Amino acid sequence: MSGLTISNLGYSYGTKRALDGVTFSVPAGRFCALLGPNGAGKSTLFALLTRLFTTREGKITVAGHDLARAPRAALARIGVVFQQPTLDLDLTVQRNLLYFAALHGLSGREAAERAEAALDRLGMAERAGEKARALNGGHRRRMEIARALIHRPDILLLDEPTVGLDAATRAAITDHVHSLAAEDGLTVLWATHLTDEVRPDDQLVILHKGRVLSDGPAGTDVTRRFLELTGETA
Ligand SMILES: Nc1ncnc2c1ncn2[C@@H]1O[C@H](COP(=O)(O)OP(=O)(O)OP(=O)(O)O)[C@@H](O)[C@H]1O
């Protein structure tokens, strides 16, 4: 099983319960939208999935590896795009990719080939030598996505990856990541509070106040369903 399984996950900040009995699975090659308003617990869940935080409550399995028992094997199968941009703006586009490749133990020709392939795919090959600072917001985000995939993970986690982008760029990035699931078989967990980023064919998990309220095909009319379940607009 190369997907993601989350069972009965719980986490508290002191007395504040942030996640409670969170259970859902994302099958291999599926795009799963994790929809929740601010404070639903999405960032806490991502912190647990990437082992920034640990918990004794529940279990996470990544591509068949138990994250608590085999963290190195599990984390090697994950690529992450965090909410806050993390490119080094003073390094070139290519160096940003090579640096990340090195963190994953790739170097020399293999790393250079993967960086080149990633830039080709984004249509950015001619910008390899430019500083990341020269890129617009959309290109920076695409670079971060390419960088998260440089070690060829099975699962891509994105925490509100379109924050701060204009509507057209947001739509293009959302399309791009949907195509990574549909065409490349990548398993995607996409956290968002925006219903227009969810497609009818997606798996939709609605998280609210630390609990999963619904899990299934998104279908149409996500906004109405979200309002009915949570009493909030997204
Ligand atoms: N360090 C902390 N100490 C106490 N409570 C916290 C802390 N971090 C988060 N929380 C609370 O835990 C709950 C879940 O927060 P979390 O940041 O995971 O939600 P989120 O869905 O990612 O929201 P956002 O989009 O605003 O980041 C919220 O009620 C939040 O106020």
UniProtKB/TrEMBL annotation:
<dbReference type="InterPro" id="IPR003439">
    <property type="entry name" value="ABC_transporter-like_ATP-bd"/>
</dbReference>
<dbReference type="InterPro" id="IPR003593">
    <property type="entry name" value="AAA+_ATPase"/>
</dbReference>
<feature type="domain" description="ABC transporter">
    <location>
        <begin position="4"/>
        <end position="234"/>
    </location>
</feature>
<dbReference type="Pfam" id="PF00005">
    <property type="entry name" value="ABC_tran"/>
</dbReference>
<keyword id="KW-0536">Nodulation</keyword>
<comment type="similarity">
    <text>Belongs to the ABC transporter superfamily.</text>
</comment>
<keyword id="KW-0547">Nucleotide-binding</keyword>
<dbReference type="InterPro" id="IPR027417">
    <property type="entry name" value="P-loop_NTPase"/>
</dbReference>
<dbReference type="GO" id="GO:0016887">
    <property type="term" value="F:ATP hydrolysis activity"/>
</dbReference>
<dbReference type="InterPro" id="IPR022467">
    <property type="entry name" value="ABC_transprt_ATP-bd_su_PQQ"/>
</dbReference>
<keyword id="KW-0067">ATP-binding</keyword>
<dbReference type="InterPro" id="IPR050763">
    <property type="entry name" value="ABC_transporter_ATP-binding"/>
</dbReference>
<protein>
    <submittedName>
        <fullName>ABC transporter ATP-binding protein NatA</fullName>
    </submittedName>
</protein>
<dbReference type="GO" id="GO:0005524">
    <property type="term" value="F:ATP binding"/>
</dbReference>
<keyword id="KW-0813">Transport</keyword>
